[in-house]
Here is the input.
Amino acid sequence: MKFLRRLLEIAAPAAAPNLELPAEDLMTTVADDAQDRHHEKARLKAIMCCAEAVGREALANHLALETGLSVSEAKAVLLACPSETLAATQAADAFSDMMRKHPEYAVTAQEVPDPPTVIERIQANYRLASGIPAQKPNEHST
Here is the structure.
């Protein structure tokens, strides 16, 4: 009999711990969570909408969403990086400078033929598939 009682004691689930918070602690936790969310939203908005983020939107999004940097630290990082528009302008200027130095590589609009229209491509593919000789680009059948 003792054996069965001991077996029942072992098999019986232990008393579950009391996980309930007192009502005032629960209200404090909810208020703290709401305040934390408000502060995080304000931080995101401050980083993503600051003047330093103009031209560096991708970096600002990364700093706001993927790091825990403060607003002042994020602004300092944004200022240290060149803006995307500045980098694109510098790349375009470098290309223009290179083309000015080497005019022999310049391509004019007269040298580049217009691409074939959809109808011309369909006709060319049909001729190719059926064995009809290809027409020269300026020949048009009537």
User: Anything to note?
Assistant: The chain is about 60% helix and 0% strand. The CA atoms of residues 124 and 130 lie 10 Å apart. The first helix runs from residue 2 to 11. The mean pLDDT is 79.
